[in-house]
Task: inverse folding
């Protein structure tokens, strides 16, 4: 059974933030480079999302099973979470485009992401990019000349 992406929805009810999991440089916890890009909906704190990742991502370097302790001061953590972009009144398509844009931006700057999937495929982007009802104008202005790439 195929699950719908929801990208055809015209509802501009998505509110939240795009975040990154960063490796700290060991200098007072200053983020050094981004390793993962994700999204959190309104009411879902990115700190809570990071805790979920730390507990569940046994394939990732930030996993607590590798001996990481996140109970002390954040400045001592090897990995941390930071906001990249807030979004409000976006469609599901808008959010996926924004998340993919950030993923590609990080890679273009020389980063290596641990994301296992793209936020949106080239085929889905091409299918909905001309539909102004699902790609709202404020998001369209920012990402108009951009195209997704498979990472």
Result:
């Amino acid at each position: 059974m195929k699950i719908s992406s929801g990208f055809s929805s015209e509802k501009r009810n998505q509110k939240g933030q795009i975040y990154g999991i960063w490796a700290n440089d060991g200098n007072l916890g200053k983020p050094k480079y981004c390793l993962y890009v994700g999204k959190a909906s309104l009411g879902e704190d990115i700190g809570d999302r990071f805790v979920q990742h730390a507990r569940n991502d046994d394939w990732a370097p930030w996993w607590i099973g590798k001996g990481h302790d996140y109970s002390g001061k954040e400045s001592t953590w090897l990995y941390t979470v930071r906001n990249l972009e807030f979004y409000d009144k976006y469609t599901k398509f808008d959010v996926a485009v924004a998340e993919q844009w950030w993923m590609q931006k990080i890679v273009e700057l020389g980063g290596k992401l641990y994301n296992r999937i793209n936020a949106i495929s080239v085929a889905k982007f091409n299918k909905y990019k001309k539909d102004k009802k699902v790609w709202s104008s404020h998001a369209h202005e920012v990402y108009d000349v951009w195209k997704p790439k498979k990472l």
Notes: The mean pLDDT is 85.
